Amino acid sequence: MKKTVVLGASDNPSRYSYKAINRLKQHGHEVVPVGIKNATVEGLQIITDKTQKVDDVDTVTLYVGPQNQPVWYDYIIGLKPKRIIFNPGTENRELEQLAEDNGIEALHHCTLVMLASSTY
């Protein structure tokens, strides 16, 4: 299964990041929620410290708008994920280029759709 960092994690059940955490867990993936709010989602503590190391990350799935992403660039690239999923509304050419420059695949897709269609 693919260890996935959900960047922009929220404890609000109406948010897509919350739904993604739930569905990723249902599909058996290890989930690491990362965000700015100290809270718990699906029994997992949201990491708010950008210096906290997470090893063996397969995927970073973004739920942070492009205007708020620059402060996360070093953190995302430092995770050394195999891919970054730019969910709708998170597209950012600058971060895509950084990813490509570091050998990280950049996908424009929806994590929830990928899980529902078995393409995750």
UniProtKB/TrEMBL annotation:
Source organism of the structure: Pontibacter populi
Highest taxon listed in the record's lineage: Bacteria
Alphabetized Pfam families for the sequence: CoA_binding_2
Boundaries of every CoA-binding domain copy: 2-115
Protein name: CoA-binding protein
InterPro entries in the record: CoA-bd (IPR003781), NAD(P)-bd_dom_sf (IPR036291)
